[in-house]
Amino acid sequence: MAADGTTLVHVASGFRFPARLAGFTRLKEQAFDPSGHYVAIGYDRPLGGSADHVVVRIALVHIRDMSAHDHYTIMKSAAMAHFSAPAVVSEGPVPFPADPQLSAWRGIFTGTRNGQPWRFSLTTVDYGYWSGRLTAAYPQSRAAEAEQDLTALLPTFRWQRPARPAR
User: Where are the alpha helices (DSSP H) in the chain?
Assistant: First the structure.
């Protein structure tokens, strides 16, 4: 926990997960590996005045010698498995103008859940020692609003650069 009493800090990487961020609220659901090589934190944001939400899961994992594209390829089927009739909308490399050395890959998909159309995405980033992964899901009918919210969320994490543990 950081000095502010609300920000979770992944000790091994120094990556910070504030309780509130760009209108998103950190979820109580968290996953971690006691060795420090994996952490995943969820965030949620209501969409407008409706019962719909955009849900985001951010993970850091230590993976040796794996590109962002390879990480994406491995995780793609897991991301698609949460929906019926998934289809690729787009996929490809993601540029980071502020840090051109970062390699990232992103896919956007459609599918159905409980008979309702959804949109979801998977983004992977190669930080070197660490790999980052961000998944997001939201109802297709609220895609424009959810994607604006995600556009506001992403830059708040891009300034962070996880550090390699001192061990």
Answer: 68-80, 143-158
* Alpha carbons 24 and 88: distance in angstroms, whole number: 26
**AA letter at 27:** L
Closest CA to 9 of 154, 37, 18, 134: 18
**Residue 140 clears pLDDT 70, i.e. is over it:** yes
The two three-digit tokens of residue 66, written as one number = 């794996």
- Using a 10 angstrom Cβ sphere, with 0-12 exposed, 13-18 middle and 19 or more buried, the burial of residue 159 is exposed
94 touches 105 (CB < 8 A):
yes
Question: For the whole model, what pTM was predicted?
Answer: 0.88
> How far are the Cα atoms of 23, 26, 103, 129, 134 from residue 55, in angstroms, in the given order?
12, 10, 24, 27, 10
**Residue 89 in tokens:** 């909308």
Confidence of residue 165 (pLDDT cuts 50, 70, 90): confident
Model confidence at 110, in pLDDT bands (50, 70, 90)? very high
